[in-house]
Amino acid sequence: MTTTVLLFASWADALGSRLAVELPEGAQVADLLRELSSRTTGRALPEPMVAINQRYASAAQVIRAGDEVAIIPPVAGG
Amino acid sequence: MRVALVDRPIDVAALVAEVAHPGTGATTLFVGTVRDQHAGRAVTGIDYDAYAPMAHRECETIGAEAAERFGTDRIVVEHRLGTLAVTEASIAIAVAAPHRVAALEAQRYLIEAIKARVPIFKREHYADGTRAWVDNRGGSVVATSGAPVEGTP
Fold first, then answer.
1. Structural domain boundaries of chain B?
2. N or C: which end of chain A has fewer CB within 10 A?
């Protein structure tokens, strides 16, 4: 399935603010992060959180077709 | 309770007026402003960006937690996005409660939770012309131009 991934801050600088990623059915957040890491080799990017449908997700959470997936670098509000 | 991400200067007096209520005896106002230095580097401004729908949702969740925990829903949070100059307010939080302890403790809870959880990002502009994304953990700092820098918030 093709999943649209939103990216922010340093991750958006590296890969763009929106990315279509091909993932197998049943793929977990950790699988997505591995795929993205392979695209950023050699860049010093901070380890991100992942949100699915605007809620923070665990590494084991399964990504489903149509989910809104976002790569959230370390936050800096306030 | 009201939270908002705004792209104009924050009117802090308006926030104080908004939470005012005859039943409250204490109002606290927190204002976060852009500082002119970070980790020994001269800062000239900050770009704030957000995953806006989630940032709004997370601010609402935190506001509801504070209302529940401290017993007042007289809470207003505004966080500014865009490019800010030194001394401008990036965030303002007003809380009113019947007594001071609740207003003070709710204020502290709100700002700490917002800094830890809300997907807002900032890129500092330095006097030497470089810019870098920084975060609230005191962890890695990623330069978008110039050399990587280390720092703490």
1. 2-143
2. N
pLDDT tens digits for range B23-53: 999 999 999 999 999 989 999 999 999 999 9
Chain A residues contacting B via beta carbons under 8 Å: 6, 8-10, 13, 44-46, 51, 54-55, 70, 72-78
pTM (2 decimals)?
0.92
Asked whether the beta carbons of residue A9 and residue B133 sit closer than 8 angstroms, the reply is yes
Chain-chain contact of B142 with A44 (C-beta, under 8 angstroms): yes
Distance from CA of B134 to the nearest CA of A (A): 7
Which of B31, B38, B43, B51 is the best residue to mutate to test the A interface, defined by the most A CB atoms within 10 Å of its own CB? B51
Q: State the ipTM, two decimals.
A: 0.95
pLDDT tens digits along A43-63: 889 999 999 999 999 999 999
Determine how many CB atoms are found less than 10 A away from the CB of residue B71: 12
CATH number for B2-143 (one of 3.10.580.10, 3.90.1170.40, 1.10.285.10, 3.40.50.300): it is 3.90.1170.40
H or E stretch including B127? none
- Do residue B111 and residue A75 have CB atoms under 8 angstroms apart? no
The residue range of the domain holding A36 is 2-72
